[in-house]
Amino acid sequence: MVQLNTDINYEGSEPSSLFGEAITKIVTPQHTFKLPAVPVTGNN
Q1: Cα separation, 15 vs 41, whole angstroms
Q2: What pLDDT was estimated at residue 8?
Q3: Of the N and C termini of the chain, which has fewer Cβ atoms inside 10 Å?
Q4: Rounded distance, CA 37 to CA 14, Å?
Q5: What is the DSSP letter of 29?
Q6: Contact 37/18 with Cβ under 8 angstroms?
Q7: What is the pLDDT of residues 1-44, one digit of tens each?
C-alpha cells in the first residue's frame, strides 16, 4: 500500500498521476499506469 497526501500540482501535473506512474514502472514495468486527462463536464 502506498499513500500520497497532497493535492498540489507539480510542474503542471497531478501528483497522483506522477506517483502512480513511478510506482508501476518499478513494480510492473510492462503495465505502466498512465491515464489520459479526462475533462470534467458539468452534466451531473
Answers
A1: 22
A2: 84
A3: N
A4: 10
A5: T
A6: no
A7: 778 888 788 787 788 777 888 888 888 878 776 766 666 666 65
Can you read off the three cell numbers belonging to residue 38?
A: 479526462
Residue 16 CB coordination number (10 Å): 12
Cell of 7: 493535492
Task: Please check whether residue 23 is in contact with residue 2, taking contact to mean a CB–CB distance below 8 angstroms.
Answer: yes
The CA–CA distances, whole Å, from 23 to 5, 7, 34, 42 equal 15, 18, 11, 32
pTM of this prediction exceeds 0.85: no
Closest by Cα among 34, 14, 10 to 24: 34
CA gyration radius, the chain: 13
